[in-house]
Amino acid sequence: MHVNHILIVEDDISLASGLCRALSSSEVRTESCGSLGEAGRRLAAWEPNDRMPLLLLDVNLPDGNGFAFLKTVKERYDIAVIMLTANDMEMDIVAGLEQGAEDYITKPFSLAVLRARVAAVLKRVAAEEDRPERNDNRIIFGKYDFDFDKMLFLVDSQPVELSKTEQKLLRHFVNNRGVTLGRELLIDRIWSDGAEFVDENALSVAVKRLRDKLSAHSYIKTVYGVGYVWVKEP
């Protein structure tokens, strides 16, 4: 299960504390800071292998304007932002949305409405992360970047060497994420030039090697008596 992180940038300590309590759950971790400078430092120090937080960003802060910070954040990070502000002027809302904010909530607001809108943004973010980005023979999702044309396979930005058999197997897995592929089908597709002479053990060995090389033990699952599946959610 993914844990969603929400960074609340709000200089009103009482409000920030209330938002942290209201939005925290078993699936959501919240933290707050009261300035743009501190928010910038926390984002810069964010662990690259962890999910980047959703940002709840106040517009008027002691050390600057939230709109300028929003622009910088969107240029540097792949991050969702919801603007929180007392400014309800249409031009402010349009400015925030045009600079990449996912939503814009004006104060005062209902906590129930805020929770619903935060949940909607988190749901969209999760859907985007779960959807592979395709460019012909390049597939990107999560920690993986597979370029079948260039035969370049990256795990957490580190290259991994795959044999031709492993590349064929990987292509079938990632093109059919969430679908159980039978052993006979995989053998036929991967060793199409002579599948009748292939020992079934060869498939088991190829799957094990692929799991190990890609650190994909939580993704490539054995469906006993049937075959294998690359699960969408490890």
- What distance separates the N and C termini? 8 Å
Average of pLDDT = 84
Regions with little confidence, pLDDT below 50 for 5+ residues: none
Radius of gyration: 23 Å
Q: What is the H/E order?
A: EHEHEEEHEHEHEEEEEHEHHEE
- Given the structure, what is the number of helices? 8
Task: Give the overall shape.
Answer: elongated
Instruction: Please give the share of residues in helix.
Output: 40-55%
Strand arrangement in the largest pleated sheet? 2-1-3-6-7
Q: What structural class do you assign from the helix and strand content?
A: alpha/beta
- The count of strands amounts to 15
Strand proportion, as a percent range, falls in 15-25%
How can the largest sheet be summarized?
5 strands, parallel
Give a quick summary of the entry.
With 234 residues, this protein is an alpha/beta fold.
Structure description:
- The protein is α/β, with parallel strands linked by helices and 234 residues long.
- The chain is 41% helix and 24% strand.
- It is built from eight helices and 15 strands.
- The protein has helices spanning 13-23, 36-44, 66-76, 90-98, 111-130, 164-175, 183-190, 200-214, and strands at 4-9, 28-33, 54-58, 60-61, 64-65, 81-85, 103-106, 133-135, 138-141, 144-147, 152-155, 158-159, 181-182, 220-223, 227-230.
- The strands form four sheets. A five-stranded parallel beta sheet has the order 2-1-3-6-7, sandwiched between helices. It has a five-stranded antiparallel beta sheet with strand order 8-9-10-11-12, with no helix packed on it.
- Strand 4 (60-61) and strand 5 (64-65) form a beta hairpin.
- Helix 6 (164-175) crosses helix 8 (200-214).
- It is elongated and about 70 Å long.
- The mean pLDDT is 84.
